[in-house]
């Protein structure tokens, strides 16, 4: 089995586990994430943090984003511009949301486009070395690469439920490692890879 095929299998398996979490449990787990991450994520006031508005069975990190905002973060969320590109538009509780395609909502084109200092990254699966499996479209990988091309190096924090952890992600050379993971069990920072 190729790494790509194994990733697809792990993605489907872990998303099925996430989908099986009841709405009530998802709310409880999302609030636990807000409690833990709301204090443990370190940043300077005025830092730009990208979150996301939940789709399908993702964790609802709006309570977490609100806590980060109250600590001085400037928030943005991704919007899909086309099949290849996402941009991060400024977001607040008062921001009107519009359809941004592919079943997502986000701020409209009048919202400022920001470059995040910290990115809260949704994912399908992760391992304890910081490797992740996304949803397969590569939106975040390309967005991170664009930030790197600008000389920026955002901190990457994966957002997932415990059930999305796998023993090992078949990492490829182009894969981008997470700096930390936030689940309902808490916030964990990954050690840098050696070698």
Automatic annotation (TrEMBL):
Its cofactor is Mg(2+). The keyword Magnesium applies. Keywords: ATP-binding, Ligase, Magnesium, Metal-binding, Nucleotide-binding. Substrate binds at residues 53, 58. It is an enzyme of class 6 (ligase). Signal peptide: none annotated. Pfam families: 5-FTHF_cyc-lig (PF01812). The keyword Metal-binding applies. One of its GO terms (molecular function) is metal ion binding. It comes from the Bacteria. Belongs to the 5-formyltetrahydrofolate cyclo-ligase family. This is 5-formyltetrahydrofolate cyclo-ligase. The lineage of its organism: Bacteria, Pseudomonadati, Pseudomonadota, Alphaproteobacteria, Hyphomicrobiales.
